[in-house]
Amino acid sequence: MERLAQLGRAGIASLQRLGRGHLLLLHMFSGITDLIRRPKLLIAQLYSVGVLSMLIITISGLFVGMVLGLQGFYILSQFGAEEALGVMVAASLVRELGPVVTALLFAGRAGSALTAEIGLMKATEQLSGLEMMAVDPIKRILTPRFIAGLLSMPLLAAIFSAIGVIGGHLVGVGLLGVDEGAYWSQMQAKIDLHEDIYNGVIKSIVFGFVCTWIALFQGHDCVPTSEGVSRATTRTVVHSALAILCLDFVLTALMFGE
Amino acid sequence: MSQQSDNSNEPLVKIRDLRFYRGERAIFDGIDIDIPRGSITAIMGPSGTGKTTLLKLIGGQLRPDAGTIHVDGQDVHKLNNKDLYKLRMRMGMLFQSGALLTDINVFENVAYPLREHTRLPESIIRKLVLIKLEAVGLRGARDLMPSELSGGMARRAALARAIVLDPKMIMYDEPFTGQDPISMGVLVQLIPRLNKASRLTSIVVSHDVQETTNIADMIYVISNGKVIAGGPSKQIANSTSFWVRQFMDGLPDGPVPFHFPAKPLEADILEKAAAHKTGATP
User: Fold this and answer.
1) Which residue of B124, B126, B128, B170 has the lowest C-beta tally within 10 Å?
2) Minimum-distance CB partner of A128 among B61, B86, B112
3) Which positions ≥6 away from B139 have C-beta within 8 Å?
4) CA-to-CA distance for A135 and B93, rounded, in angstroms?
5) Which residues of B touch A131 (CB under 8 A)?
6) pLDDT digits over A15-55, tens only?
7) Which residue of chain B is at minimal alpha-carbon distance from A122?
8) In chain A, where does DSSP find H-type helix?
9) Which one, of A26, A186, A185, A203, lies nearest residue A97 by Cα?
């Protein structure tokens, strides 16, 4: 009986968290009009959320592209289709690896930083202090970060894919001797703007929305102690990763399923 | 603000039958408090009696389960968000930690409310901030970051920020806790000076008996969710009530028991022994 009650309590707590998360989302949206009047706030966050994540995204993109070049070459060469390497690398990056790996890296780099920052602001009463200064902390602090995450993710994913294609080129063309013309021309012929690129962009917008929302909610909802902030940071990374992978499956099924 | 009263006899803050629960536990179980205009009123009581909670209730950051809080004639918890924020512009609050924004320096922290709520030109903002920093003795520290300040300095910088919009009232949350004797002396001197010079009304929440009784005009002592004593500070300091004496004189045992509620020691020990015995002989 006690177990059942525990299960019920946990269920109610999860539903309450879900409700608080959605209320926070609405509150953040209501701050967009204020943000338009003060674009400086957004620019500062675009720098810390987006620009500072670029290094890890660029390096990871390069290596992922290089690995795709290697693996793709060995498989394709078994069928004598090395020329299709460009298509293979570009399609895997633009459709899947670009949005997904970027989102996973973003959750680890920017998401955890957002949670820790907001959590510590809560623990050190900075959010409460803003409220008492008649400044809405959600509109002033959370909304710019949310919009910055939403805008950064597709841009970072695009950079990841572009660098990945170059990585694939370095290995495929530079090292393994695939014909350069074939690498680019096949890619140009087979990669479709709507089917591949738009769908990839939609994925990364969805991931940006979810990752930033999770990160900000965890920070805002954490227990304001050092242990609470550390738990919230872990939860951000874990929940974001799970959400990204589940959503990726759903979106892929919707976009490319028959 | 038509409801706003300027009647100087009316208390600035009027709390009536305030009830607030955390789960099953009653933090406030029907308390009445009046904070007279222009006074320094101390709210005292042991740790965990919800003194900070009271300030958050007055500031509208928490909602009571029952009862009302009127600030300057307005029922705090009946205001819509916009009016509540307007009211908060007339309240300053000094948090225990200072709550300075850590990514901007002292000057910008003090200027923050002005930049948020006014469209004053930069030269006036600079003058106002320097005047407020001068009042707390930190004009020279304006370029320091909050991480470079000592605890006492951070609290003073936060105080300058709390008074920069010239509020009607200021709430101090445990201003003396964790301060060295010099910082404590500075704050003890600063609170009444500001109160007089800026014609403020101050609410000081504290459990530092000596310092608080020295500066307060009125004292309320809270324990177990009730106001156990309230009145002019001299009267409270000389009170003969067991409750008040235990708190004021720091006696370890009395109406507030030394032991956290538990069953008798013998029962606790024997129960363990009995359980052990039954476990050993099946």
Assistant:
1) B124
2) B61
3) B130, B133
4) 13
5) 59, 61, 88
6) 999 999 999 999 999 999 988 988 999 999 999 999 999 99
7) B99
8) 2-30, 32-37, 39-45, 54-78, 85-91, 98-106, 112-123, 126-132, 137, 143-169, 180-190, 199-221, 226-256
9) A203
